[in-house]
Design a protein that fits this description.
Strand 4 (76-79), helix 4 and strand 5 (99-102) form a beta-alpha-beta unit. With 397 residues, the chain is α/β, with parallel strands linked by helices. It has two domains: 3-135, NAD(P)-binding Rossmann-like Domain (Rossmann fold), CATH 3.40.50; 143-337 and 383-391, Dihydrodipicolinate Reductase, domain 2, CATH 3.30.360.10. The longest helix has 18 residues, at 339-356. It has helices at 11-21, 37-47, 62-72, 86-96, 117-120, 123-129, 143-154, 182-189, 230-237, 252-263, 281-288, 328-335, 339-356, 373-382, and strands at residues 3-7, 29-34, 52-56, 76-79, 99-102, 132-135, 158-168, 193-197, 200-204, 210-215, 219-225, 243-249, 272-274, 277-279, 302-313, 316-327, 364-367, 387-391. The structure holds NADPH dihydro-nicotinamide-adenine-dinucleotide phosphate. NADPH dihydro-nicotinamide-adenine-dinucleotide phosphate is lined by residues 8-13, 34-36, 39, 57-60, 80-83, 85, 103-104, 138-142, 180-181, 184, 292-293, 340-341, 344.
């Protein structure tokens, strides 16, 4: 019996549950656990039959996790709760002897700092225990790291310039909503921009650098340079990179709302006193914003995420663009979730599957680009995220 445990019953957890249930030859015993069991049960019912067991767990509590792991005995846990739970889940994995996969790096709740140091510090302990931890196995981070590794393996002798481009050209019909957990999303997009150039990090004001970039089947969209966590691991694992940047599209309406939210203090993560009890403004805001998991039904349009790479092959300069486009409505029809949850959940399932079949197994803590990209690229085409490549094109960056 190969058991898999999914933690987190949000938008991404919904997709992971649907996708693992589609591969019974690999995942024959599935459990979905989250803080609210009713959400797990609703997802299990939507998947259908008795394929998915459910459980309640507080993933901030290591002992609760250990008890669950010891009773269900999963081979691997897919952590799609929030980045705040990464370390407690990794601690419990070490204690109970379970392998680990996530889609977002650890963040301490009290400070929005995006770095792998906390999780990389677990490497020796996972290695000694003979356990695998796969970090950042969503789309970005995740597929973007696999795309980079694939490009470096097959199309370049050296990669020099990497621009990750993330466009959501979808329309959910709401004046303002975030595509994944609002708290995590707003922390990410309101921080200062940062990119890697000539061996050091260059910091910018939030959204200071922007330009229109043309996305396949979508057209030009204003794209903003922001910091994104995979840049840290990619510049470490591909030291030939002279520059690495991340671009994300935002609509004017979204940016105006974001500015207002920040100006009135609602993006703050510093606790305030409200009617005699402490609250965090951003967490309160999350409670009144649309639930990203509910956006799917009326979401039209598509996402386009890829890597634009320049480097050398056979002493000749070469450009390469590899990307996936995902249609929100297709994602919704298949899983009941919108495209951003889908593009995150499918790679998480694929990473766990490659672990299960022995292709992505090594003792220690690793980012996705440290594994062989080929089987992952193959599985993307089979499980709903087909990719396309363009050679020697104008990268616009
Ligand atoms: P949601 O907020 O929709 O879901 C998070 C889930 O985690 C909720 O069901 C919540 O439970 C559960 N949860 C939160 N805290 C705990 C806890 N202490 N114990 C148990 N369960 C808990 O988020 P998303 O599904 O949108 O995102 C999930 C993850 O995916 C996030 O880490 C996000 O950063 C990451 N992500 C990664 C992307 C990538 O491409 N790499 C892109 C998008 C997201 P409850 O509902 O009961 O509160």
């Amino acid at each position: 019996m190969e058991r898999i445990l999914i933690i987190g019953a949000g938008g991404v957890g919904t997709v992971v549950a649907h996708k693992v249930a589609q591969v019974p030859a690999v995942f024959d015993d599935i459990m979905l656990a989250s803080r609210t069991r009713a959400k797990c049960e609703a997802i299990a019912a939507a998947v259908g039959g008795t394929k998915i067991k459910t459980a309640q767990v507080d993933a901030d509590d290591v002992q609760q996790l250990v008890a669950l792991f010891k009773s269900f005995r999963p081979a691997i846990v897919i952590n799609v709760a929030l980045p705040y739970q990464d370390l407690t889940i990794m601690d419990a994995c070490l204690e109970a002897g379970v392998n680990y996969l996530d889609t977002a790096n650890y963040e301490p709740p009290e400070v929005a700092r995006f770095e792998y140091s906390w999780q990389w510090a677990y490497h020796d302990r996972f290695k000694r225990a003979g356990l695998t931890a796969i970090l950042g196995c969503g789309f970005d981070p995740g597929v973007t790291g696999v795309f980079t590794a694939y490009a470096a393996k097959h199309h370049f002798d050296e990669i020099h310039y990497l621009d990750i481009v993330d466009c959501n050209a979808g329309d959910h019909g709401k004046p303002f909503a975030t595509n994944f957990n609002p708290e995590i999303n707003i922390r990410e997009v309101t921080q200062k921009g940062k990119y890697w150039e000539q061996g050091k990090w260059v910091e910018t004001e939030p959204h200071e650098i922007h330009r229109p970039l043309t996305y396949p089947e979508i057209g030009p969209r204003e794209s903003y340079l922001i910091y994104h966590e995979e840049l840290e691991s990619l510049v470490k694992h591909f030291p030939s990179l002279r520059r690495a940047r991340f671009w994300m599209t935002f609509g004017q309406e979204y940016l105006t709302h974001l500015r207002v939210i920040q100006n009135i203090g609602m993006a703050s993560i510093t606790p305030i006193l409200y009617e005699g009890r402490e609250i965090i403004p951003l967490q309160f805001l999350k409670a009144v914003l649309p639930d990203p998991g509910e956006l799917g039904e009326h979401y039209s349009g598509k996402t386009s995420i890829g890597c634009r790479i320049k480097g050398v092959k056979n002493r000749r300069e070469k450009t390469y663009y590899v990307y996936n486009n995902c249609t929100h409505q297709d994602a919704y029809r298949e899983t009941g979730a919108q495209g951003v949850s889908y593009t995150t959940g499918v790679p998480a399932m694929i990473g766990a599957m490659l672990f299960m079949i022995g292709q992505w197994q090594k003792s220690g803590v690793f980012n996705v680009e440290e594994f062989d990209p080929d089987p992952f690229m193959e599985q993307l085409n089979l499980h709903g995220l087909p990719w396309h490549e363009l050679h020697d094109v104008d990268l616009e960056v």
